[in-house]
Amino acid sequence: MSTTLLSITRQGTFEPFGLQVSRGQIQGHSTVIVFGYNPDVDTSEETVWPDGGTIPHPTSESVLKISSSSANDTSAGTGARTVYIEGVDGNYAVVSETVTLNGQTAVNTTNSYLYVNRFYVVTVGSGGANAGNINAGTGTVTSGVPAVLYDIIATGYNNRTTGHYCVPAGYTGYMTEGVFSAGQASGTTAVTGFLKQHGPDDILRVGAVTTVNNSAAVFMFEQPYIIPEKNCVGATAIGASSNNAVSSYFNIILIKEGP
What we know:
This protein is mainly β. It contains one helix and 18 strands. Helix content is 2%, strand content 56%. Strands 4, 12, 14, 15 and 17 form a five-stranded antiparallel β-sheet that branches. Strands 3-18-13-16 form a four-stranded antiparallel β-sheet. A four-stranded antiparallel β-sheet has the order 8-5-10-11, with no helix packed on it. Strand 14 and strand 15 form a beta hairpin. The chain is globular and about 50 Å long. It starts with 5 loop residues before the first strand and ends with a strand.
């Protein structure tokens, strides 16, 4: 049976612990919400994100190329004009910046990134949303798409929907809740979902596995699933047949270690 942890506020009243964390009332604690969506998972393993295939697990940091599949996502365009990107570098330290877009022409980041944790639109034109897929990656850029994708903001979403997160150095992540859902038009075949974790040893380990058929699996961790510093977690899926819409959700409490 689920229980709600309460803690006392400075005013002497009791509120849910998670609410106090979200309000910034507990020093060294913060909430991380990681939502992923893949509209078309087929019969090979895919990360729960807008692109097919699995997210890369690089061994060294890289300057990223930011570009869009649409020419309207540019500094004076009708789509997205600037984006915010945040992640960890080769030492797993947090790095971030705001990038001004130039349509399908790539703009290099100032920082180098090992993984991306946040990626969203900051300013837009009259269209109110990104007109194309906004990509962050490395390698040759063709029609606004880098050869290797690190993250993506799907058209019209203004935010990443990538079910992957990497814990920075000096922090520990505690996953308190996880959700995996999938559906298909036929409703007759299942989708297998995985929670996968890896650290600096580059070994990808399965933390949880579930199978759903036009439904959702909800995990409430009474004893939170621990994600040590410099470790990443991500959701992947494999369909028994093609054309599955899949989503994932992680609720993580990030705690700063030490003084």
